[in-house]
Amino acid sequence: MANVIVVGAQWGDEGKGKVVDIYTEYANDVVRYQGGNNAGHTLVVGNEKTVLHLIPSGILHEGKRCIIGNGVVLDPKVFLEEIDRLKKKGYLKNDSQLVVDANVHIIMPYHKAIDIARESNSGARKIGTTGRGIGPTYEDKIGRRGIRFIDLLHPEIFARKVKELLPEKNLILEKLLGGQPLDEEAIINEYTAYGQMLGKYLGNASKLLNQSITEGKNILFEGAQGSLLDVDHGTYPYVTSSSTIAGGACTGTGVGPRFIDAVIGISKAYVTRVGEGPFPTELDDEMGEKLRQVGQEFGATTGRPRRTGWFDAVALREAVRTNGMTGLAITKLDVLNELETIKICTAYSYRGQLLEDFPQDLEVLKECKPVYEEIEGWNASLAEATSSETLPKKAQEYLKKLEQVSGCPVVLVSVGPRRDQTLQVKNPFA
């Protein structure tokens, strides 16, 4: 038995979907524990690409149970659309394969309207939200005024809650944000219909997962976004609204920490970031554009071009520590194939000081300049590699350098988008 958490080790978009898809082969249950449809996981099986926003990446494997834990916020319209697309592709043939916890909070139309209006009114202070209503939904959850999945299945209770909440939301939209009010009856009718369609997926994630643990089954915990976007440990306020680090897997599913066996951090062989916020190794030049084009660095959810930069070991060490990582999965190593030299940031320079730790003070981080080590590239294709030992020698040296500067062993290497372009060094489920 093994229970493994997969987390993003950077600012998101690290390729978690592919790694989860690979590890699902060894798992019985795959559970998503935080975030919403502001994240997109891109999976390539054969020549077919599938983008998922809410449903765990393990859904592409027949017979694997996929669970959406209580820590997730769910847009029922997006969820139903995703189910429909999967069924049209021949997946999710058995609805019992998918479970949604009763305590999942629901993204309502006023959450999205407030999210978009706030960002449009923020000017230079915008944080780069996707406008999907994620933050306002978590606000209502913490404020104890949220609507949960179970409420959709009780029309009278749901209608009462909407009638209680909507006047305040419309006041905020109209008077504070300059938006348009929303129609109460339309919302009640639309979301009551969603409840009728989604009731068959209702379940108790904590009970099901703990039962699996008792039975000696393997569980894979799937996170969204990245560690540096964690609401507590990330580059606040340029973060998401949930706990993206490994600890969030426990609070977001109702599984105790003593049952966790491994934490695998996913990191690109370089770094990307979407939205606003400090990014010490950002390359706003020809090299940055080359990484963006070769790596196809455009958001799976929004299509936004990602900011790109050299590998940042200072940021990675922060992620290794806050997650208690036991292994690293390095993705997109092949994007660096044609480079003569590659840079790795091993420290920051701040007003004449050398910083080896990631600053908590955002104002300090904004002024940090990367201190680089430059190493020779391999300037060769990785297509023929069948194991980490068969990679070009310089590529192997690059991976060893990443292990050295992060203090965490590499357990998986991705050299292309397909399933079969993955080299496992050590299987955390073994």
TrEMBL record:
Please give the subunit comment from the record: Homodimer.
The record's annotation in PANTHER family points to: ADENYLOSUCCINATE SYNTHETASE (PTHR11846)
Family the UniProt entry places it in: Belongs to the adenylosuccinate synthetase family.
Please identify the protein, giving its name as recorded: Adenylosuccinate synthetase
Q: In which pathway does it act?
A: Purine metabolism; AMP biosynthesis via de novo pathway; AMP from IMP: step 1/2
From the Swiss-Prot or TrEMBL record, state where the protein is found.
Answer: Cytoplasm
Q: Which gene encodes it?
A: purA
Task: Please give the organism.
Answer: Trichloromonas acetexigens
The residues that the entry says bind Mg(2+) are 13, 40
Task: Please give the NCBIfam families that the UniProt record associates with this protein.
Answer: PRK01117.1 (NF002223), purA (TIGR00184)
Q: Which Gene3D superfamilies match?
A: Adenylosuccinate Synthetase, subunit A, domain 1, Adenylosuccinate Synthetase, subunit A, domain 2, Adenylosuccinate Synthetase, subunit A, domain 3
Active-site residue list: 13, 41, 141
Residues given in the record as IMP binding sites? 13-16, 38-41, 130, 144, 225, 240, 304
One annotated Gene Ontology cellular component of this protein: cytoplasm
Q: Where does GTP bind?
A: 12-18, 40-42, 306, 332-334, 414-416
Superkingdom to which the source organism belongs:
Bacteria
Q: How is the cofactor bound?
A: Binds 1 Mg(2+) ion per subunit.
Q: What is its EC number?
A: 6.3.4.4
